[in-house]
Amino acid sequence: MIEFEDVTKVYPDGTTAIEEISFTVEEGTTTVLVGPSGCGKTTSMKLVNRLEEPTEGTVYVDGTDNQELDKIDLRRSIGYVIQEIGLFDHLTVGENIATVPELVGWDQSRIDDRVDELLELMDLSPEYRDQYPRELSGGQRQRIGVARALAADPDILLMDEPFGALDPITRDNLQDEFLQIQERINTTILFVTHSIDEALKMGDRIAIFDVGEIVQYDTPAEILSNP
Ligand code: ADP
Ligand code: ADP
């Protein structure tokens, strides 16, 4: 569960990115933050795993003020997928996926099993394991990015324009696949996009942002019937 309580973020240069934002992402559901560029979506996301710190207000992760949680633990326990995910080019697909399980000390056989399981989940054949990111298409790389974020079975997944750099057909396929995966993993997801279509498709709840604030927070059905 993720809860924002009156959260304000002012950057050191004086830019107010978000102002007194409150919303809750219930366990096992997806909330999409949608709105134009520069309205504070990415900042909100980074406040969850403490890539940024709030100026005022509180971000709760599973009921605990995340300021009380260890930063490194937070980053490792929360999956994070970004646009054109920074896969490590010098590591194979398998090694990329294994990054966090290795950091948290899983033994090798458990890691091997998990990599196989995730390749299957992401609909990639086992041969991809030993390939390098540069040998893959954009859609395949993004699948690996998702697999890497899911590797250590996080309770929470942050997805910042995860399919934004893909062509429309690949994007549509990955959205459909991810919706199916989501049903199997029961992860709490915060998803950022500037596309209202993607928000309506992916979200259980949608937070519509306008410069620094949430102007509507509803289910897709409520938003469609009450725009
Ligand atoms: P979005 O994700 O909706 O595009 P962001 O959260 O990235 O919005 O940005 C919100 C506002 O904060 C913008 O005005 C942006 O320029 C500003 N901003 C983002 N990061 C920084 C930073 N590190 N320093 C100063 N201003 C920033
Ligand atoms: P640092 O060395 O900056 O403290 P870590 O040791 O926590 O970072 O992580 C090493 C790399 O693994 C990071 O560059 C990051 O991209 C990746 N990583 C860490 N945690 C996660 C996560 N939960 N999901 C996806 N990638 C992660």
What does this structure look like?
The two termini are 27 Å apart. 37% of the residues lie in helices and 26% in strands. The model has no long low-confidence stretch (mean pLDDT 93). With 227 residues, the chain is α/β, with parallel strands linked by helices. The protein contains 9 helices and 10 strands. A hairpin with a 2-residue loop joins β4 (56-61) and β5. The strands form 2 sheets. The chain has a 6-stranded mixed beta sheet with strand order 6-7-8-3-9-10, with helices on both faces. The chain has a 4-stranded antiparallel beta sheet with strand order 2-1-4-5, covered by helices on one side. The structure holds adenosine-5'-diphosphate (2 copies). One adenosine-5'-diphosphate binds at residues 11, 13, 15, 17, 35, 37-43.
Topology:
Blueprint: E1 2-10, E2 16-25, E3 30-34, H1 41-48, E4 56-61, E5 64-65, H2 71-77, E6 78-82, H3 93-97, H4 99-103, H5 108-121, H6 138-150, E7 156-160, H7 168-185, E8 188-193, H8 196-202, E9 205-210, E10 213-218, H9 220-225
Helix pairs in contact: 5-6
